[in-house]
Design a protein that fits this description.
The structure holds 2 protein chains of 2 kinds.
Chain A lengths: L6 E14 L3 H10 L2 E15 L4 E5 L6 H8 L7 E6 L8 H7 E5 L11 H11 L4 H15 L14 H13 L5 E5 L7 H18 L2 E5 L3 H7 L2 E6 L2 E7 H8 L2 E9 L3 H8 L2 H4 L8 E6 L2 E7 L5 H11 L1 E9 L2 H7 L1
Parallel strand pairs in A: 3-7, 3-8, 5-6, 6-7
Antiparallel strand pairs in A: 1-2, 1-4, 8-9, 10-12, 10-13, 11-12
Chain B lengths: L1 H24 L1 H28 L8 H21 L2 H9 L6 H4 L5 H7 L5 H20 L5 H27 L1 H4 L3 H9 L13 H10 L7 H7 L5 H29 L6
Classes of the chains: A alpha/beta, B mainly alpha.
């Protein structure tokens, strides 16, 4: 076993057992006596190691098993088989010991107490994590600098905006200077300014203390700005583990244009779309894809081989376009390509 | 170990002072809860008084004896109500909504976090009523409290409270397997009403059931009957301590086992 690893994940598997429920009253009664078990494999045989100080992007589509893996690394869940080691501890065996050395943020759900003012929250966390007075003071000053906490220090957590809450949650996870930070969707639902601030804080924390960070996100720019290495999982299986450069080389020139169209006959639109690839300069089936659903046309293409203007010209001249936007390729689309 | 206990006490104090501050802020809420509670208690006492208008005594128990038991029952119930009210929510939506995750992410015991999460001031009313009734019934019924007896009284209240908490803990921990257990908790918790009256009035089956299976009899009738001279100290106190510690042990075991079985939820 390599001594230098901060996180070790070996052949990790988690299977949930659910029971099929019968339909109607008769079915419910029947399932009381005879239950049919369904096994759901959320995580299948995943292995990877993470070195101290790394920032890892852990990505995959919704339901790919990201959160389940994080829950095993933080000790919330017991694995069905395989093992996890974080620092010196097996998290689900020494949960409280492990908790002293990690910080966790779930973007979807706050870890803080709804009814407590932010200030009191930190005073209580100081006690829970036994943070020494002088370190506490310097951390709070530091957080105030990067998260501007004093703006809402007196408010209760319940009254915070999403952006403020996320700042408070992140600061709370970093208060005791954990060796490892697990950030599950730390930028979800935030506007660009707040996202930028949060990324800066994450980067700063990593440089200042050498904190190992594992983060999941749907935002490609989070990954580009923060991560040196990414791990992609899909349907519970490991798809890719390696540098961000490979991904950037392969998908960095991918662009996506989304059009809102108005039309009466969808089949007619489909028929016209079939002429898109043959008629636009540089378009090939392997560098351009499109999809039409409920008035929204999404075109993915490689910026290096296909001109944006060609595609725009084609769509604008053939359809009634209400609105459009040009975006970077999203993570779901990348996962699909593997 | 000792510093750990000190840390837990300090933490509890921090949570408590916050809740007391919050209670002060919503005083109307507190007063309404308090009043409603007095009305309920008044109904219960009026019922006993009404029964004794018709019959001079019940299987050898006088009106003041019954009042004493009734009052005694309110004290451990009220103390438990003040401190462990969050267990009702554990049996409710905490597990099904994945809220329990957060308690597993902090380096203190999840049960402590759950208990510290809430302070229920309604319980204060129950304790006050209980003490008033016990004092009144003692004076009228000629029960004399020596310092030793007072000490025994306090010890009995402590262990009776442990029984309440343990029963709630065991039943709410079932939610780790069933996701929710509020209805089963409610069903059994209602049985504590039985403990407010002498056991003799019940069928043997119920007597055994609320002494050994869901031991609410030990939260009122059995300990109280020592003071009424109907039971020996050894039997009342011994049984109360024995069963309360057994129940607490079981409760903690089941709770910890439940954590191992906890499956969280997807996002």
């Amino acid at each position: 076993m390599n001594e230098k690893n901060m996180i070790e994940v070996h052949n990790l598997t988690k299977t949930f057992t659910a029971y099929k429920k019968g339909k109607g009253l008769a079915g419910t009664l029947k399932s009381l006596f005879k239950r049919e078990a369904i096994h759901i494999e959320a995580v299948k045989d995943i292995s990877f190691d993470i070195k101290p100080g790394e920032i890892i992007g852990y990505i995959g589509a919704n339901g790919a098993g990201k959160s389940t893996t994080i829950k095993m690394m933080t000790g919330i869940l017991n694995p069905t088989s395989g093992y996890v080691k974080v620092g010196d501890y097996i998290p689900y065996e020494k949960r409280q010991e492990n908790a002293k050395h990690i910080g966790v943020v779930f973007g979807q759900k706050t870890q803080l107490w709804w009814d407590l003012p932010v200030g009191e929250t930190f005073a209580i966390l100081k006690e829970i994590y036994q943070v020494p007075d002088d370190f506490y003071a310097s951390q709070m000053a530091y957080f105030d600098e990067i998260f501007e906490l004093s703006e809402f220090m007196g408010q209760t957590v319940r009254t915070l905006s999403l952006g403020q809450r996320m700042r408070a949650d992140l600061a709370a996870s970093m208060l005791h200077n954990p060796k490892v930070l697990f950030l599950d969707e730390p930028t979800i639902g935030l506007d660009v300014m707040v996202k930028e601030r949060i990324r800066k804080a994450i980067k700063d924390m990593n440089q200042r203390y050498g904190t190992t960070i594992l983060l999941t996100t749907h935002d490609m720019s989070d990954i580009e700005e923060l991560c040196h290495r990414i791990i992609i999982i899909d349907k519970g299986k490991l798809l890719y583990d390696g540098g961000i450069d490979t991904i950037r080389k392969e998908f960095g020139y991918e662009r996506k244009i989304v059009f809102d169209l108005r039309y009466d006959d969808a089949t007619l639109v489909e028929q016209t779309l079939e002429t898109l690839i043959p008629s636009v300069d540089g378009c090939q089936p392997d560098n351009t894809t499109y999809q039409l659903s409920e008035g929204q046309l999404t075109v993915n293409f490689n910026r290096n081989q296909v001109g944006v203007s060609g595609i725009m010209n084609f769509v604008l001249s053939h359809f009634n376009v209400l609105d459009f936007s040009v975006q970077d390729m999203d993570i779901e689309a990348i996962v699909k390509r593997f | 170990m000792f510093t750990n206990a000190k840390r837990y006490i300090k933490l509890y104090g921090m949570f408590l002072s916050h809740y007391l501050k919050a209670v002060m802020h919503s005083r109307t809420d507190f007063i309404i809860g308090f009043l409603a509670f007095f009305l309920i208690q008044f109904g219960g006492i009026a019922f006993i008084a009404l029964v004794f208008r018709q019959i001079p005594d019940l299987l050898g128990w006088s009106f003041y004896d019954l009042l004493f038991i009734y009052g005694f029952a309110n004290i451990p119930r009220g103390i438990d109500h003040m401190f462990t009210d969050y267990l009702w929510l554990l049996a409710g939506n905490v597990i099904v909504e994945g809220e329990f995750d957060r308690y597993l992410l902090r380096p203190i015991h999840p049960l402590f976090q759950i208990i510290a999460q809430r302070f229920q001031p309604d319980g204060v009313g129950e304790v006050i009523i209980g003490i008033l009734l016990v004092v009144y019934a003692s004076i009228k019924g000629g029960i004399i409290f020596s310092p030793t007896k007072l000490l025994i009284f306090i010890v009995m209240i402590i262990f009776s409270t442990i029984i309440y908490t343990s029963i709630k803990l065991i039943l709410s921990s079932i939610a780790f397997w069933t996701k929710r257990s509020q209805s089963i908790l409610f069903m059994f918790y209602s049985m504590s009403e039985f403990a407010k009256y002498p056991l003799e009035i019940y069928h043997k089956f119920i007597r055994t059931f609320i002494t050994y299976i869901v031991p609410f009899a030990l939260t009122a009738y059995i300990p109280a009957s020592y003071f009424l001279g109907a039971s020996s100290l050894f039997k009342s106190l011994g049984l109360t301590i024995l069963i309360s510690l057994t129940a607490l042990f079981l409760g903690l075991k089941i709770f910890n086992l439940g954590i191992k079985n906890y499956e969280s939820v997807g996002n």
